[in-house]
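Researcher: I'm preparing a figure for a lab meeting and need a structural model of a single chain. I don't have an experimental structure, so a prediction will have to do for now. The sequence is pasted below. Please return the structure as tokens so I can convert it later.
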Amino acid sequence: MRRLPRLAIVGLPLLALACAAPPVEPQVTLPPTAATEGAGDPTRGAILASAYVFGQPQSVAGNPAAAAEALAQLEYLTAELASGPRWRDMDPTVPMAFARARSEARAAFGLDPAAPPQRAIDSLYGTAAALRAADRTRAASSLAALTGPAQAEPTLRRLAALPYLPQAAFATSRAQTELNRRDRGRDFRPFFR
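Model: Understood. Here is the structure written out token by token.
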């Protein structure tokens, strides 16, 4: 009987895990107010804006509304890049990176880990809009849909000092790299799910 090398025995399960498709995400939408001027479409805008914010969190220091929007964009991209048909040619590791980034962000801000993505998007954009209108009560109320009423105020304070989230920085940076690759039209790598 022929024996498999030890590396093959250990490596096969890891290879199978790496090739596994990311979980299927529900379809999501951004509110009309989420459009990034000059970006061309909401997903492109979310990729560009979130890559900047998560790569340089100090850029939104003292601006909890901008931090809430970046978290909403992360939620949106996690679902859109995993299930949106326009993104099938994207490197398949990017949606998996976003799933890890979403878990990291939800844990860092005390957001419900089981919240549906659309509820998270709506709550975070509602929080951002209320903060921009200087209505902290409405902002806390909107955020409570993800944190529970007791944790809404502490989470609002955390939004004012967005921490460095390495998984989010990595995922959004990879998405921006893939977007740039698509724009150049080079290195086309079809990916069929």
